[in-house]
Amino acid sequence: MKYGIAIFPSKKVQDEANSYRKRYDPHYALIPPHITMKEAFEADEDEIESKIIPELKKIADETEPFSYGVYKVSSFSPVTNTIYLKVDPSEEIFALNEKLHSGSLPGDKDYAFVPHITIAQKLYDDEFSDVFGSLSMLKFDLQDNVDRFQLLYQLENGAWSVYETFRLGGE
Amino acid sequence: MKYGIAIFPSKKVQDEANSYRKRYDPHYALIPPHITMKEAFEADEDEIESKIIPELKKIADETEPFSYGVYKVSSFSPVTNTIYLKVDPSEEIFALNEKLHSGSLPGDKDYAFVPHITIAQKLYDDEFSDVFGSLSMLKFDLQDNVDRFQLLYQLENGAWSVYETFRLGGE
């Protein structure tokens, strides 16, 4: 089964992201707006229960809640034409990402972590230029708190279903 | 904010339900296949954190994991033309539903609880007759375990985002 780990922003930020995703992101219906903390990895249910969830609990316990800001739109162009709300980099989110790729947790970190909330992807080149041209002019002033992350699994139709919530800082 | 409580079946059952929802359920993209345990209710975030989540934790701790079977399709017709996978009634699921409507938890129970996984809704009358005519011939033999329920909130676009997972039987 394919699993992934994400942070879901507050309703306010999700609603903002969805106002763009609705038009520009074909994954709009597959998962709510999110910050991917760990890309999709393969694991079986036994491994998830016996090994991965205890490890994620430990990481969550050791991580204090933190906040982040969103101020602008950016893009992965020319690598891909994905457009995203840029999550202002903070030590905390990098540290959490690092922990989620350490120890015995499966899944490689193939590239540098750029915390982001995707709002457009898989656009045609012309469309990308137009859309990014206008979105990149936008200024945001969103502040959001992270007090949990979620383990998800992917269904056959490509949609993601939340399996477990991990609260930061223990309880 | 609008909250609700649901059980998400295993991937196997979700995939089965989605094979019908894709064609017949306009809510297909708003939430994965689920058993609604508590209909949408209004609450503010403070109340959720200070009162409702502790109460849900207590309920989850006191409830042992249980299993259920799905053997056939049924419908709420003529009240609504919703078609669903019938969750074979069990004491455990009724007891959990009862607990989720007790104590100081908000939200009324407006009608008798019929545990189900919706696979079609908002069909035109003609379409309903056709679709239900063929789906009601189907026989299933699905067994599934419930070891958690989830608290969700609704986004402005109607989609549901998981806020917290509650494991049954404590940990």
From TrEMBL, chains A, B:
<comment type="similarity">
    <text>Belongs to the 2H phosphoesterase superfamily. YjcG family.</text>
</comment>
<dbReference type="InterPro" id="IPR009097">
    <property type="entry name" value="Cyclic_Pdiesterase"/>
</dbReference>
<feature type="active site" description="Proton donor">
    <location>
        <position position="34"/>
    </location>
</feature>
<dbReference type="InterPro" id="IPR022932">
    <property type="entry name" value="YjcG"/>
</dbReference>
<feature type="active site" description="Proton acceptor">
    <location>
        <position position="116"/>
    </location>
</feature>
<dbReference type="GO" id="GO:0016788">
    <property type="term" value="F:hydrolase activity, acting on ester bonds"/>
</dbReference>
<feature type="short sequence motif" description="HXTX 2">
    <location>
        <begin position="116"/>
        <end position="119"/>
    </location>
</feature>
<protein>
    <recommendedName>
        <fullName>Putative phosphoesterase E4663_09445</fullName>
        <ecNumber>3.1.-.-</ecNumber>
    </recommendedName>
</protein>
<dbReference type="Pfam" id="PF13563">
    <property type="entry name" value="2_5_RNA_ligase2"/>
</dbReference>
<feature type="short sequence motif" description="HXTX 1">
    <location>
        <begin position="34"/>
        <end position="37"/>
    </location>
</feature>
<keyword id="KW-0378">Hydrolase</keyword>
<dbReference type="InterPro" id="IPR050580">
    <property type="entry name" value="2H_phosphoesterase_YjcG-like"/>
</dbReference>
